[in-house]
């Protein structure tokens, strides 16, 4: 076994080894002299036991070999003395000599083994001491060069030791910090927090931390996370407290900025009546703000399964939430869904945001807005606009109705002064006009054949004017029939006031054809008047012009054309089959 450094130093010192050998020789010589004199004065009664103390001393001073050699020398000297003085060596002497040799060997081996064990213990202790010294060296290196401030303080708060970083933070030199108390570095408004830290250490807590403001040497303050650590034996505060100081000024500033931005965002969302939401399409988990759950009519919750929303989302809109697809990149997400709240009201909700992948998980996130009031307002505005248009059209129709009736009265002559027949003819014409008026006053579901709409409008004049109506059978449905009847009514009214219907020799030709051989193609409608007109060729822009499309798009169809002259009028219009019905 290798010897420890101290043992090696003892073995390598010649003066020490010389003194040890000299002491061993003196003990051996004294023992031999004592044995010789004992053999002379005591005689055969003397034993070899007086050699045992000498063997023990020599085994302690020397190694195993010299101790065994000294034992054998003592036994030989004892036997020689007995042989010289008594002429013979008895069996008892031989037995004592053998026992002494065995005892000396045991003693020498025992001391040798003890010496080895002691050396091993010393080597282990030396290795542990070296490890402790290395650890302490590393600790000191880390303590001095750490990115955070470190210090040691006693239970009175006096700084015992500090590192370079703490000096840089506070602006004090290490010698100056050693003369200060920890309380001095803490802002006066935060010293209560320091007392709570110390109190926490006194309540069997290994460490305690808090965010406080520390003062620099120049009087300025900075935010730091102060952590105190201490071992607490038997509930008594230890004399050394480890202090860790982490400068969090920038982190604190960023946190405050984020908090302010969050407050502004929450205020903006609240003012805009918006809510935030997120859907994890992989796990089917929906999270949202309190306003989001309120819009859906559900109590607040941290999260819900996506399937739970099927109870409130309209079945026709449910695929808009559950449909997913593989995304190559971030895409926008913009849908509107209907929600049936527990109180029975239907609400329109807009979900706007984006779809993206985050950690290989497809998700949707964005904002939600309740569009119900906006939609109701839009519908009310549309209804009001439609009502206004209908009232304007009704007013215009009524304004035209009386001149038409007056013209009918003037146009119908009294046959052979037969007033009864005159009245019958006049009533028949007025009823025909009433039928057209009732058609135009009907709801949007009214429908009819194009031929019937034209004939019904011109029926009051069929017997007195030259009128021809021709064209294929075409059905018009819904609002298209109503709008087209208004166009024909306006053409007829204009013709009665200024054109062919107001001239006894006037002629009107109305026809329509398909633009191509395909029955599903567009329809070309033409209204042709011939006869003297009572107005110039200047087109007056008014409500009637708006209806037939002179001042813009017509009520139905497209590409209107109007040509007027002193001897007639020609109007054409194209009707799309998709626009007027199946």
UniProtKB/TrEMBL annotation:
Pfam families xrefs: HWE_HK, PAS_3
Every PAC domain range: 208-260, 333-383
Gene3D superfamilies noted in UniProt: 2.10.70.100, Histidine kinase-like ATPase, C-terminal domain, PAS domain
PAS domain sequence ranges: 135-198
Cross-referenced PROSITE patterns: PAC, PAS
Top EC class, one word: transferase
MF annotations from Gene Ontology: ATP binding; photoreceptor activity; protein histidine kinase activity
UniProt xrefs under InterPro entries: HATPase_C_sf, PAC, PAS, PAS-assoc_C, PAS-like_dom_sf, PAS_fold_3, Sig_transdc_His_kinase_HWE
Source species, domain of life: Bacteria
Alphabetized UniProt keyword annotations: ATP-binding, Chromophore, Flavoprotein, FMN, Kinase, Nucleotide-binding, Phosphoprotein, Photoreceptor protein, Receptor, Repeat, Sensory transduction, Transferase, Virulence
Documented EC number(s): 2.7.13.3
Residues of the signal peptide: none
Reaction(s) the record says it catalyses: ATP + protein L-histidine = ADP + protein N-phospho-L-histidine
PANTHER family, A to Z: ETHYLENE RESPONSE SENSOR PROTEIN (PTHR41523:SF8), TWO-COMPONENT SYSTEM SENSOR PROTEIN (PTHR41523)
Name of the protein in its database record: Blue-light-activated histidine kinase
Organism of provenance: Mesorhizobium delmotii
